[in-house]
Each structure stands twice: as structure tokens, then as C-alpha cells.
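retry 2 of 3: previous attempt timed out while embedding ribose-5-phosphate. Reduced batch size to 1 and resubmitted. Inputs unchanged:
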Amino acid sequence: MIVVSSGAIHLRDELATLGGKIGGVEIKRFPDGEKYVRVLSSAEEVMVVGSTFYPQDERIIELLLIGDALRERGVERLRVVIPYFGYSRQDRVTKEGEPVSVRVVMRSLGLYYDELYVFDLHNPGTLKFFPGKAVNLSAARAIAEYFQGKLREGLVLAPDRGARGRARAVADRLGLEYSHFEKERISPTEVRMTPVDVDVRGKNVLIVDDIISTGGTMVKAASLLREMGAKKVFVSATHGVFAEGAVERVSKAVDELAVTNTIPTPVSRISVVRDIVNL
Ligand code: R5P
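retry 2 succeeded.
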């Protein structure tokens, strides 16, 4: 049985079609603003699905309440799939007195859930904070299938060295070559990028990242590729976190922008539901 929290309402129909029985859950608010949750069905094994994008706090509380409610109903094996995991970027103390936020969230979820599944987590090393089995899934299959046939003579690029593995996973599936940009962050909104030794002239290029936030990285990469003579520039990412105006900014700078549906956005054209129901 699958239980869908508010962070996966947009995946509900596809989960039902591909994954089978969806358990009922009532989610509302008390007049004082607190969340109220009631699960309406039960099974021996349950998979709860819900991304924790904005408003992250309330979606996390919801997953905890659903976990507690399902344990109350006697569920034995409880898995949680959080396609986009909020608070994942606060993974270390940078100023004295700060918490490791991702650790707080993972430990809290561990009170109720036996297994945790996420997609392209910012820092996969932080999965160690979850006390049970924790798996970082890849959106490479979904992204590669979406772009199959669109690139022809092309290549896949990562916007920085750290994202090279992701570009490679997509490129391997498409049978294309891959490379990366050297990226240096100057401020939260500014990046300096240097193209690596690769000839993009006359080629279609797909740039793949884990997150698009302000869109600064992708816009910069796309304009560099144009200067270098690339033919078409496609941009994709697992999580479209998109700050205000970012979808428009990136869309204007590239031939196509498509992200996965871990977060619902106007360009969430790539579905990871198949990877979820196959767990
Ligand atoms: C950085 O660690 C991430 O992989 C992304 O490259 C970054 O979050 C993109 O941010 P923006 O869209 O603001 O350039």
C-alpha cells in the first residue's frame, strides 16, 4: 500500500496507475494552525511518499505524523520515499552554534520509518544520519529516457566537477560522450565557469545538475556554450527548486528546460514515479 502525503499529491495518479493501491489519508489543520492527520487504511507494509519542498517544515511534520499514525495501526514495515529532501543542503556547521539540519530531519524520520529513499541527495554522505536503511536513488534513467533522440550528435555536460558522475550516468544511457565545467562560486548568486577541454562546436549539448535554484549556473553555462559554437543547449536537473523568476530566466537562455517531478513546477516533464514503484 502507498500513502501519499501533501508533498506528492502531484504524483498520486501516476503512483496509482503504476504502483497499485493508494491508502486513504485525511490531512487538514486545526483552527490553531496545527496539522491533523488520519490514515484511513492499513497494511502490513506501507510506503509513504512525499517530497519536502516549500513549506518544508510542515511537510516534514506531516511525514512524522503519518509515520506515527501508521505505527499506531500496527504497520510492520514502513518505508518513506522523499523524492526531494528539504534541509539537505544544511549538512555541516559553518558558524558556531548552528545545527546540522539534515541530521535533525533524518534522525526524526528514523523514529518511525525503517527505510528511507531519496533522489540525488545534495550530500549522499548524510544518509548515514538515518538509523535504518537509506538509499540515494538516481534520476539518470528518467532524464536519459526523456532526452533520448533529442540530442543525436551531442554530448552531456556537468556544470561542475562534482556533478560529473551524474552527467556520466545520463551520457552512458544515451551512448554519448560527457565532460564538465570548472565552476567557482563568487557569491550566492554569482558563479564563474571555465569550460573544460571539449569541442562543442556544432553539437547539441545537455547540461545536467542535481538542483536548479536561481538558475545562475545554467544560464552561465548555456551562454558559454553558445559562445563556443554549440548548436542546441538542453538543460535538465533532478530538482527544480527554482527561485522567483528562475524558470523564465533559464527557459529564455536555452532550447529546452526540463526537470523531474520530484517537485511540481511548470517544467517538471520528467517522471521518476517508475523508479519509486519499482522499489
Ligand atoms: C550546487 O552544489 C548544486 O549542484 C547546483 O549547481 C546549484 O544549487 C545550482 O544553483 P543555481 O541554480 O542557483 O546556480
